[in-house]
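Listing S7. Sequence submitted for prediction.
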Amino acid sequence: MSDPVDQREDWSVHLSPMGLLGSLAAFSIFLFLLVLILVAYTPILDIFPGYRTAAERSHDELVVGIMRVDSLERRMLDMLVYSENVAMIMEGRTPVVNKPMADNDTLKLDKTQVKPSTLDSLLRAQMEGEGIYSLAQSVGERSAEGRSKVFAAPVEGIITRHFSRQDNYLGVGIKASPNAPVTSIAEGTVVDVNTTGDKGTTVTIQHFDGYVSVYRNLTQVLVDKGQTVKSRQVIGYNSMPQVGDSSNPLFEIEMWYEGKAVDPEIYIVF
């Protein structure tokens, strides 16, 4: 009798080291892609403790935005109050203190009056007087015809004497270099050329819109009465013969508007 044949099947798998490494690499890549898709397209991170949700992040950004808007609003209100106080000072009134009430952080202000200081009194006296910073001249004369005028400087130099109605000095004295060219401050017509003795010649030019400019202490005058001149055209030269002599005459320029003397420093950019 022979032995019966064994009908069982045996399975075997042979894995080489390189095959095992490749399988692990493929599985790692698949797992990485799966996690990446879940994080990018699902709210799976919200279930982990300590991780801030999208709603919380949006809430924090909204709070920061509200704080910035509130800060800008406060700054704008401070600027408005400051401008109003400056306007009140110019009008001779007393400004108020911009201080919120202690029990309520709102727009209510403490209306405590600010006591005028010594510097404030000096500033008001200067603004209300007849000096170069006077409101009457800065606003009234500059706003002739409702708009300001700007003219060219007639000569390069240093202003050593200013316009003063009290001293009856109705122009500006400029210490310029010897024989410096003097130019017209704007387009106009020469209405007078007058020699005034040892100090030189005076030239008067009529401009448009009622302005007249007078140039004193000139020499070698290059224009004649009735001649039309352009802006910055040379009309003569400074009559100062040399530097350092205290007896040398200053170049002087006067400006008149509708028969009234005005401060040239308001209209001319020296």
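Caption to Listing S7: primary sequence and predicted structure tokens for the chain studied. The two ends are 137 Å apart (CA to CA). The longest strand covers residues 211-219.
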